[in-house]
Amino acid sequence: MDYHKLAADIINNVGGQENVNSVGHCMTRLRFILKDVKKTDKDAIQNLDGVVGVVYAGGQYQVILGQNLLPVYEAIMNDFDVKAGQVINENVDEPKKEPWSWKNAGSKIIGFVSGAVMPMVPGLVAGGMLKVALLLVVTFIDANFAKSSSYLLLSVIADSPFYFMPIFVAYEAATKLGATPIYSMVAAAALLHNNFYSLVTQLAAHPNSVSASLFGINVPILSYSTSLLPALLISLVAYYTEKFLNKIVPGIFKAIFVGMGTIFVAGSLGFIILGPLGNYLGQVIASMFMFLNSTIGPFAVGLLAAALPWMVMAGMHQAITPFMPQLLTNPGYDALLRPAFTAHNMAEGGANIGVALRTKNKKFRSECWSLAVGAIVAGVTEPSIYGVNLRLKKPMYGVMAGGFAGGIVAGLLGARAYIMGYSNLLALAIFEKTALAMFAGCVTSIVVAAIVTYIVGFEDVPSEQQVSENEPVQKEYPDDAIVAVASGELENVEQVNDEVFSTRMMGDGVAFKLSGDFICSPANGEIVSLFPTGHAFGIQMNDGTELLVHIGLDTVKLNGEGFDVLAKQGEIVRAGQPIVKVDRKQIEDEGYDLTTILVITDAKNNDIKLKDQGSINVGDRLN
Fold first, then answer.
1. SS3 state of residue 615
2. What residue intervals traverse the membrane (predicted)?
């Protein structure tokens, strides 16, 4: 298929690129925000080869493309001068946003910071683990390797995610705000430019001998590589500057003056005010953690580790995760957060060991051992939390006790993370010279959690445990089985309040009115697509049949809020395995319909009939 031609035909029939305020996409459809919907030709678009259907809802003109979505979207962005994401336009209907208040200011700030930093964390971890690998090579294999050009170049790769952190943060922050990312990235990149960095280098070599000014205003000479907060502040200023300029600059001059004005204002203020202010705030945050370390340090690590299982379930751990990179910058190590996260993960695994040693259910015992290994070796704790410890309730005492004890031991022995990495046994090298201290904390967490869990006991799982609506238990299913993805009431897909699904544009399927919080895999197979917001995922069964699970209607607008993703794209999963956990109350309070749809997008010429009436539990057969 010629995706560029299809993209051109779609743009022409939505009124041309001049009629497009912005275009985004979810998992199945392009989402246009248009200046004048009357200029579109719905019939012409629907007749295009590759287009499944067209819907206009919520102020968005939606073109359903299914598997052709991403190539067409990329062709549009490459071939046409249209804006991605939200558009700053007072005449465009945008999703209703909760106004700022003293009550929600804290959560909004945390949500913004987390949204800007969290997508960057995998890159930091990747760089950190490469640094660990180089350290291990130099320490245990060949010390002379550190003098080679290969080591130098590999170190450059490993350091890049940290050195250019301001640019990555600026991109994510601008995306979160709905601004044009490149403007924030340019303004943040100015802080790292060689001309400015050379002043930083000169100042380090000759204190008090270097100065700079902009418009007669003194510019503090500070190093902003690996910094976090200056980029966030610059992105905020760039967003509001762009928004203001879009209002006052005539349309014919926008292309010239909006971008120029935005980077001029944000970049200049970055040097004069925003960079120094961000640096100061970073020092304040670091001093707070240093105060805890110098006063109740070991107990702070233990208390945080004990609280983490509840924070993870509430999503509150994301509020403190962004400060890990900040601590690695100033004071240069993390003596609180990473040790606590690691102790908690070990405690989750230890509690699973305690359950495995006590349960009389052989199948459940095997599952507990497997989850324990996952928590301890890989640092994957959600299956342990939801599948065992929270489900049986009393093992959570073991988790808290183990985390507290392990955190105190790690703190007393001086465990400090010097490199960004994972919270598991395989990543202990990130603690460098204090790795043995963290290892002692890990062993303590595992042993204490296992012993406490074993002594406290729990209500054992019967051999033939029934699946409850909120606590899915995985069973074995044949490869041709399609099961309920959630507990609740089945509904004929024709009753869904979304034309794309009710008219079966994407394929036949069934809808669920949820009574449980877990959305699970409908079949044995592979997660071939998983939207970052968690509101939809695709499964390819072992026979090639393709299934789509869409959680709620228009929930893509929540940008992941209320969705806790428990798996990853490319993962091999079993029917009934939890993929996403939803916060039903939060999502419904936002006014969204949580009707969840299971669609057979490609049946591979198989005649598949699904049950679509009555009450059902997650994991029940549908075919």
1. strand
2. 109-130, 150-170, 182-201, 221-240, 252-274, 280-308, 368-389, 395-415, 436-456
Which string of DSSP letters, residue by residue, matches 319-330?
A: GTTTHHHHHHHT
String of DSSP letters for 511-547:
EEEESSSEEE-SSSEEEEEE-TTSSEEEEEETTS-EE
- Rounded-to-integer distance, Cα 105 and Cα 351, Å: 37
Say which residue the tokens 């001049």 belong to: 18
116 CB neighbour count, 10 Å cutoff: 24
Q: How many CB atoms lie within 10 A of CB 436?
A: 12
Which residues, other chains included, contact 161 with Cβ-Cβ below 8 Å and sequence gap of 6+?
120, 123, 124, 126, 127, 168
Catalytic residue check, 26: yes
Helix (H) or strand (E) holding 585: helix 584-589
| Domain spans in the chain, listed from the N-terminal domain onward | 3-79, 164-292, 296-456, 488-616
The C-alpha atoms of residue 363 and residue 366 are separated, in whole angstroms, by: 5
CA nearest neighbour of 560 among 45, 25, 14, 115: 115
Question: Structure tokens of 35?
Answer: 């200046």
Q: Which of 91, 32, 26 is nearest to 60 (CA)?
A: 32
Per annotation, catalytic residue among 26, 368, 442, 520: 26
Residue 222 structure tokens: 């500070």
Half-sphere exposure of 230 (CA within 13 A, CB side): 32
Q: Would you tell me how many other CB atoms lie within 10 Å of the CB of residue 572?
A: 12
Does the domain made of 3-79 have the CATH classification 3.40.50.2020?
no
pLDDT of residue 263: 94
Give pLDDT tens digits for 463-494.
544 444 444 555 678 888 999 999 888 999 98
| Other CB atoms within 10 Å distance of the CB of residue 106 | 10
Taking only the tens place, the pLDDT of each residue in 348-383 is 999 999 999 999 888 888 888 988 988 898 787 766
In this structure, how many other beta carbons lie within 10 angstroms of the beta carbon of residue 147?
A: 10
CATH of 488-616, one of 2.60.120.10, 2.70.70.10, 3.10.400.10, 2.30.110.10: 2.70.70.10
Cβ neighbours for 244, distance < 8 A, ≥ 6 positions apart: none
Dihedral sign for Cα 273, 111, 174, 179, please.
negative
Q: How many CB atoms neighbour CB 247 within 10 A? A: 10
Residues 190 and 271: their CA atoms lie apart, in Å, by: 8
Q: How many CB atoms lie within 10 A of CB 134?
A: 18
State the greatest distance between any 2 C-alpha atoms of the chain, in Å, as a whole number: 80
DSSP letters, 4-45, are HHHHHHHHHHTT-GGGEEEEEE-SSEEEEEES-GGG--HHHH
- pLDDT, residue 233, reads 93
Rounded Cα–Cα distance for residues 198 and 528 (Å):
47
Residue 321 CA, distance from chain mean position? 12
**579 φ, ψ (degrees, to nearest 5):** -110, -40
Residue 613's pLDDT band, with cuts at 50, 70 and 90, is confident
